[in-house]
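Deliverable D5.2: sample structural annotation.
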Amino acid sequence: MIEFFLNGQRQRVAAEANMSVLELLRGPLAKCGTKEGCASGDCGACTVAIADPKDEAETGQPLTYRTANACITPAHQLQGTHLVTIEGIARGHALHPSQASMVACHGSQCGFCTPGIVMSLFALHERQRRMPDAPLDAHGLELTLGGNLCRCTGYRPIRDAALSMGEHADTRPSWADDPALENEVRRVGSTAFCKADDQAQRTDQHHYQTPTTLAELIAAMHRHPDAPLVAGATDLWLDVTQQLEPFEMLIDLRQVRELRQIEEDAEGWWIGAALTYREWEPLLAEHYPAFAHLLTRLGSAQIRNRATVGGNIANASPIGDTPPVLLTLDATLRLAGPDGVRTLPLESFFLDYKQTALAPGECISAIYLPKPEADFQQRVWKLSKRREDDISTLLAAFRWQLKNGVLSDVRVAYGGMAAIPRRVRTVEAALEGRAPNTAAFEAAKQALRDSVTPMSDTRGSSDYRLAAAVNLLERWHLTLDHTGSNSPTQEVALDAYAH
């Protein structure tokens, strides 16, 4: 059994391991306003808003409602949260500003995608109320709506609706201003799953493990060695929705405290493997702005609110977005298992397609990110078929220092080229210690051609990928010619057009 709140009302329902939030809503809870479109987290028709007290960085602040794709969010992860759906945001017959603005701007035609769009606008409206001094710009609007597809409207009336919400009466649901409800959500959110169900979760084939400490996680993995680990579920849940493969048992990571924190030392940060991209982004924005900008191209807001960096690495996909960047930053993994904790350079983690150096019973507990030196410079570029909410065809990451007119500490890594993300040491050697001139980069391009034979798949042929990878080296060369020093502003401006 799970206990949570739905549109201000307490719920206590059964949720099996394979049940999604969407199935729970449209089935036992009879809330059918949330639609199923793609069943893969791409279209946004199933968008809901979730406030989870466990995600709050600061106590005493109002609950934050963040969007999620109900189709790929496990229902059991609603434990201790407040779930908001399209049925719950009006105040009686008075529409919420997100609804009223969509009506006024003719933002809906067939209407199938409309509930998900309205819920994205609801979360945006809540955010604007909390931060009235942060005006909505075009980039922020793209980030808000990037995970909501619409086949009818051409998006302009939807954008108009988003920008005009402030023109409508601030009619929010009655539960939104109820401090007693918020306190009760926090109280329930601070408790674990019902103790009466603990034994059932350990023995029933259709349930899940919910450890709260790393020691409990390792013990659960020992009891259920074949059970998948789940955090954001943004990739794993496609096995259920697309492959129709049910899970007999899941081990959930979202409540493991050690996996949800950032530890700082003099040299860098240990990033908990179950931290979401949204939680990680502020640190990157301060120290690695080009890396932070990449996150805006990684899925959608709904995905970034749930997906984790540990999952992106452990999934070992050749087109994972973060591993190539982390390879250039000399990242290290902390692996925890029955024999204790060990560290491993990320470069040694990927063995072959979907094969890693994890030993039986081990998991990634944290990723170490070194602090950048004062003269650190970086470029990250992603190529994909569409700009928003798409996976990579090719991703290139470059890191270097420029001292006395020559390149040093050069790191070059690509994703989408082979069975695993990889550094290209021949390219690094061609540039190390040389001035960033045409001759040096021509040598680097030739080294790339000689040492890499890219894969072919539905996203791109081997010839295309090689040509694109070479062209990104030239792009890097041109930015050095035109920008000299590498300010964060220049990084973001240049990266914004890499699609």
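Annotation notes: DSSP finds 18 helices and 19 strands in the chain. The CA atoms of residues 277 and 304 lie 5 Å apart.
The annotation will be released with the project's public dataset once the embargo ends.
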